[in-house]
Amino acid sequence: QELYYCIHRESGAVSFTNSLHDLPPGTCDKLWREVPPGHYVSGRSPELRQFALTPEQLELRERYESTDLGFNLDPSSDSGDGSSDRSRHRSGQPWDC
Hints:
This protein is 14% helix and 19% strand. The chain has one helix at 55-68; strands spanning 4-7, 14-17, 33-34, 39-42, 47-50. The strands form 2 sheets. A 3-stranded antiparallel sheet has the order 2-1-3, with no helix packed on it. A two-stranded antiparallel ribbon has the order 4-5. It starts with a strand and ends in a 29-residue tail after the last helix.
């Protein structure tokens, strides 16, 4: 569900709503902004802050961490014979299972 916020210029107060259509006339006209998924508004001088990764950021993090650990997340490189990077230690030796 969408969440919108408006910072009142005079007081610095923040208002929130789930529906821009139900607002009374003159309530922060055209200053409403959507709070994106994974974000929140807080602070004495209210700011939009991120608390969760976007899907794109998560994918980049997974790729970075997988290469850092010596894994390859590219499914096209997995031959299915146990020789892929996912089935071996950094040393190149197979995992003992």
